[in-house]
Structure formats: structure tokens, C-alpha cells
Amino acid sequence: MKKSLIALAVAGAMVAPMVAQADATLYGSMRIELNDWDSGSSLDLNDNSSRVGIKGDVDLGLEGTKGIFQWEFNINTTDDNQYGDLGERLGLIGATGGWGTALVGRQYHPHFLWVNLNAYTFSDATMAEAGFLGNTGHKRTENTLAYVSPSMNGFSVAAGAVIAGSADSEDVDGHNIAAKYSGNGLTAAISFGDLKSNGAVGLDREVVGASVKYAINDAATVMARYEDADQTGNDQKVWALSGTYKIENTTLKLGYTDLEVDNGTTTADGDFWAAEVHQKMGKGAVYAAYADFNDFSGYASGAGIAATGDNELFTVGYRLDF
Amino acid sequence: MNTKIKGFLAAGVIAAVLSQNAIAQENDVDPWEGFNRAMFSFNDTLDTIALKPLTKGYKAVMPDAAEKGVSNFFDNLADVGTMINNLLQAKFDNAAQDLARVTFNSTFGLAGFIDVATPMGIEKHNEDFGQTLGHLGIESGPYLVLPFFGPSSVRDGIGKIPDSMVDPVAHVDDTGARNALYLTRVIDTRSRLLETEKLIAGDKYTFIRDAYLQKREFDVLDGNLENYDDSNF
To answer: Residue A273 pairs with which residues in a beta bridge?
Structure first.
């Protein structure tokens, strides 16, 4: 009798902290790579968006609704003078239940989450996100209030607004509405985003986008994406096709992206293709990838995208998730 | 007659038929035995006076880890030909794994000296043009011993020509470096056979011929032999 009581007490003592911890999860992903650019840079050990975060949920005493939170910051593993660079990536609070999810804070807009991430193919951030028009104003944007509906037979809608309240005439500095269908191996999304020039984001920019991802079988997946952004002096059109093929823990990836930029007087047309061999090892991964950029340099982020210059990138990377 | 005796008799008949087949097969597979034995003797002499002593010296000088590194290096180069032949045999998953092996061994594996792909769980394959021709249904033809190259068959001998064309060593521009690589590879290959050759019993020529032909049949069918069973060994 006494013994079993002690056993119960010990078991209880061990369980209690586990329950307490279950509310919040510490997570992260450390990603490093060695980049070899054909021109413009010598061999470079480069951090590939390492991040650490805390997320979890809180009991609100409501039936069917709980509070949620997430805080995530980037860690630079390679470059000098980065000790103070715990840049915030995400910081949001909200509530979720059968009625959907409402979020406030610095967060991804539906355009980036549904149109861009749905077609995310490569491990290297440059290759993966070159030509993501949602990177401008819709990726980890501050002062955002968003609502995401629950899935209704695979169908969801989302709406968000940027409400920054700075010294401008706009109450709503930008918004984004999107819809998504997910089922039978198919994920398709459309989105419309609008940013105001005199708002906190400071850009007069409209973007529409659509992306489709289809898992043909357990091994093969194909993705297609189209985006069109209207911005004074920097109109952009992007279409991209990519595919992945998986054999056990090995995945081969191949993709092509075409970008057209019109600055009002001249039009530039660039493209790039990329290939990657990716090996998953438990919760880690290694990869080697190659990309060939033709008249296409850097991210499609910010107003001043330069669709000029040829370059090639070969990279090998290592990643750990926890 | 009880069942046991019947069983023995049946086994005897089967054995007799099988051995007759084996003899008939021997004549089939090696109609050029005279020529082959002459070539074999030439190769064997060359091996005894030059290659084997050289290989023994190499093994004596090289630390085991370095020897392993050299073997890995040439295995990695061979994976290129294996990938091409897997593509030709429409074994796309295997070809994809070969590509992954070459990619990771050439980068993380420091130019192939370390085989990181195997512990990562990426299966190694072994294909060449001779096997591709066999996969397409072409019979091996008569057994053929080639001077310098050793045991082969008409099919596999022909396959060695495209093999040499996709061999990465053949594409090294510098003649000196290329020849050094060829020589090192020969020594590396020979060093791997030093242990195996201790198994040879009886007539060396026949033993090697039979072992070669069985191994090739096994390779062409990727081990899916009709009458192959682990328990037979």
C-alpha cells in the first residue's frame, strides 16, 4: 500500500511538469550552407534563415476557443557583428476555435502562406524565393490583423488588414484576401493584396497570385505559380513551374521561374532554373543545389528589383530542426 | 519400393540431367576455350610478375584508411556510369539514388574519398553497359578472356567501349594525371581481389570463368535469379 502510494507520488511529480510544458513549444531550425557564386562573391559560408521560436496555446475558459501565441526570431550563425541581431520574424497573438482563427501581430499574409509557400520548392532561400512577389509587403508584416476560416470540405478563406496608425491619412494601410482549396492531393490558392503608398508599408502596390500544387502519387509532386504585381515604376509578372520526386529519404527537385519587369520605360525579361538533391536524415537534412540565373538577380523584394545580370549558384547545405 | 528409395532415385535422375546440362552449357559458354586459356595464361603471368607485387607494395605502404579512401574515390566515379546505365534500363529510382550518391559523396564526402551516402541510407548500385545490354535481353555470348582486361564475354566486351566513354577518368585533360588515375585504379581494383582470390580452388581458369559468368548473370538480373536461393549456399 505504502509503496504504491510512493510510486503514485513519483509518477505524479514526473507528469506534472510535462503537462505544464505542453502549453508552449520551443522550436527552431538551424540552417547553414556553403555558397559558391559564379560572379560577385567568393566562396561564402552563409546562414540560410536559421530561426528559433516559442509557440503555444492558452486556456481562455471558453468552450471551443483557446488563445494562441507565437514568437520567432532569426539567428545568424555565420556572419560577423550579429550578436545583437536577434531580429524578430514573427510575433503574434490570437484565438482559434471551430469558427476559425484570428491573429494580430507580425505575421505572414495569406498571399505569402497560400500562394508562395504552396509552391515552395528549394532548400536554399535564394532559389526558393526568387520571384516570390508576396515577399514585398506580405511576408512577416507588422500591424496585421487577420482572419482565417476553418476548412469547409477543404475550402478556406482568409482576410487580413495592415493597421499601423502612423502619421498618415490611412486607417487601413493595406489588405489581403485569399481563398484556398485542399484535398485529394491538390492544393490550389488565389489571392489579392493591396498596399497603400501613404500607409505604413509605403508602397502603392497591388498583387494578384495563384498557385497549384498536386501530388501525383507518393513520390511525385508538381507545382505551378503565377503572380502579377502593379506598382508605379516596377510592374512585375512571374510564372514558375517546379517538380519534386522522392525515393525513400532522397528527393530530387527541379524548377523554372520566369520574371518580367516593367519600370515604365523599359521591359526586362529574366529567368532562372534550379535543381537540387535533398536528403532527409531524421530531423536533419543535407542538400546540394545548383541554379542558373539569366538576367535575373536577387530577390523580387522591394521596389528596386534588378532583372539584369547572369549568375550561377552552387550550394551545399545542412539543416537541423527541433 | 518405398518412398525414400523412390526419392533417392528421382534425385539421382535429376542430378544426372542437371550435370549433363552443365557439361552441355560449359561447351556453349566457352567455345573459344583454347584462345581464352592462352589469354588467361598471359594475364596471369603479367599479374604474377608485375601487378600483384605492385599491389602488395601499395598495400604495404598505404595506411588502411587511405586505401579505403582511394577505393571510395573510384567507387564514386563508377557511380556516374551506374547512373547512366540505370537510366538506360529505365530504373529511374535507382538512377535518382545514384545521382544523390555522386552529389553527396563529391561534396560532403570530399571529392568521393569518404562514402557519406551509404550511412545516409542511399543505396549503392552497380551497373554497366554489359548489364544494360543483358537487361535488354541480349545474351552474353561466348566467354571471352581479354588481354589485360581479364574475364569478359562478347556482350560485356562490347559494353566496355561505351563504359570507357562515360568513365570520368577518361575526361581528365592532363595526360599524366589521367594515366596516374588509371594506374591507381588498376592497383585499387587488384588490391580488393587479394583476399577474394584465396577462395580459388581447383583449376584457376575454370573457377574464375564460372564465378565471372554467374556473377554477371546475377548482376544483370539484379539478384532476381530464378533458381537463386540464399539457402543454396
So the answer is: A256, A292
Mutation site for A-interface testing, chosen from B76, B106, B107, B123 by largest number of A Cβ within 10 Å: B107
- Answer whether 0.80 is exceeded by the pTM: yes
The answer to whether A279 faces chain B, any CB pair under 8 Å, is yes
CB A50 within 8 A of CB A27: no
> With an 8 Å Cβ cutoff, is A316 touching chain B?
yes
- Interchain contact, A288 vs B103, CB within 8 Å: yes
Structure confidence by residue, pLDDT tens digits, A212-241: 999 999 999 999 999 999 987 788 899 999
Residue that has been written with the C-alpha cell 491573429 in this structure: A103
Nearest to A114 by CA among A208, A37, A48: A208
Which tens digits make up the pLDDT trace of B6-34? 554 444 444 444 444 454 455 678 999 99
d(CA A25, CA A53): 8
- Are A218 and A233 in contact by the 8 Å Cβ rule? The answer is no
Residue B49 carries which DSSP code? Answer: I
B97 CB within 8 Å of a chain A CB: yes
Instruction: Select the more confidently predicted residue: A146 or B229.
Output: A146
